[in-house]
Amino acid sequence: MKIEKLLKKFLDQNADRQKPLVCALSGGVDSMCLYYLLKKCRHAYSELHIAHVDHSWRQESCQEAQWLRNLAREGGVNFHLKTLNISNINGNLEDACRQERMTFLVDCAHQIGAQAVVLGHHADDQAETVLKRILEGASLGKIPGIKTISVKGGVPFWRPFLTVPKKEIMGWMTAHDLDWLEDSTNYDPKYLRARMRQNLIPWLSKEFGKNVTAPLCRLSAELEEVEEYLKKKIAPYYPQRTKQESSICYDFTKAVPSDLLEWKVLVKLICEAESFRVSRAQLNDVVRLLNESQGNKWVESGDGRITVDRRRLIFSS
Predict the structure, then answer these.
(1) Domains and CATH numbers, the chain
(2) How far apart are CA 133 and CA 131, in angstroms?
(3) E strands along 76-146, which residues?
């Protein structure tokens, strides 16, 4: 089937057969499909590990974790489990658990020297992410959704199914008579993702008379290409960084971007690198001051002051 060939091609292009792999396994249909297909591609790695997070949101999650542990044992696969205590989590529960999961996956990969963590995100996940970012008013560079290959904490994260619709994954699992777990929170309307999955995207597809998943995924891929192109365009202008006692300075005097868009992309990347959050209006002000070579002007952000002195950009906490 297409999905099998897709994974094999991805692994042939990216995997090192001398190193282990970590499969992030939730138990859902997408990650279970990934697990079974990875087992069919043993040529691509030295050893397969399963990493599972029990979020403890539901009473049955403990039993599900045990089911996955038994599955790993039967398949001769190493199993790593992290159980969260949500009573100790403050703020946005979804975001906090997502961060805990990511930290666990990174730590697990470092612990065993894995070449990558492989995840089962698919085209429907991608479409939801892109649509959510558009409706939230994300900037152009933030609209591209989940990347096929990304790096977190020095660990590569692979998502080979990003072009595969969920119905194709379910079709493969059904055709092979394989089981998976259903997480009831995926259908709980109190979560935005669940409402998008159950209501918004089906409604859009119905009203447009076509499935909107593919166009949203295509938009993400094309914007990612634009993003990479712009990064190459601004590379010659990336300024020297110097650190002083209470500030960090970027000196643009040796090379200046040729237009405002290049300025904007470059300054935004620098602000992100320095963990300085700026609004659109603040970013536009900084870019204008730099482009006009203004002297000793500044913009206040939530993380400190950004000063523009001619063609120097100075960050101070």
Answers:
(1) 2-217 (3.40.50.620), 238-316 (3.30.465)
(2) 5
(3) 78-83, 116-118
Question: 15 and 45 in contact (C-beta within 8 Å)?
Answer: yes
Share of the chain above pLDDT 90, in %: 71
What own/partner pairs with CB < 8 Å and gap ≥ 24 does 218-223 have?
219/130, 219/143, 220/126, 220/129, 220/130, 220/143, 220/144, 220/145, 220/146, 221/144, 223/140, 223/143, 223/144
Nearest-angstrom CA–CA distance, 27 and 183: 9
**Statement: residue 185 has pLDDT above 80:** no
Q: In what order do the strands lie in the sheet with 149-152?
A: 78-83, 48-54, 21-24, 116-118, 155-158, 149-152
DSSP three-state, residue 178: coil
Q: For position 48, what pLDDT does the model report?
A: 97
Tell me the two tokens of residue 118: 């492989």
Structure-token pair, residue 271: 């602000």
pLDDT tens-place string over residues 1-14: 689 999 999 999 99
Confidence of residue 93 (pLDDT cuts 50, 70, 90): low
Quote the CA–CA distance of 244 and 210 in Å, as a whole number. 56
pLDDT band at 87 (very low <50, low <70, confident <90, very high): low
Which residue do the tokens 């960084």 mark? 241
Mean pLDDT of 98-122: 95
Cα distances from 182 to residues 2, 57, 60, 98, 272, in angstroms, run: 24, 14, 11, 19, 37
The conformational region for residue 193 under phi > 0 = left, psi -120 to 50 = alpha, else beta, is alpha
Beta strands in the chain (DSSP E): 21-24, 48-54, 78-83, 116-118, 149-152, 155-158, 240-243, 247-251, 297-301, 304-309, 312-316
Q: Which residues contact 208 (CB under 8 A, 6 or more apart)?
A: none
Give phi and psi for 24, each to the nearest 5. Answer: -75, 110
Residues, the chain: 317
More confident residue, 108 or 57: 108
Task: Give CA–CA dist 31/8, Å, rounded.
Answer: 16
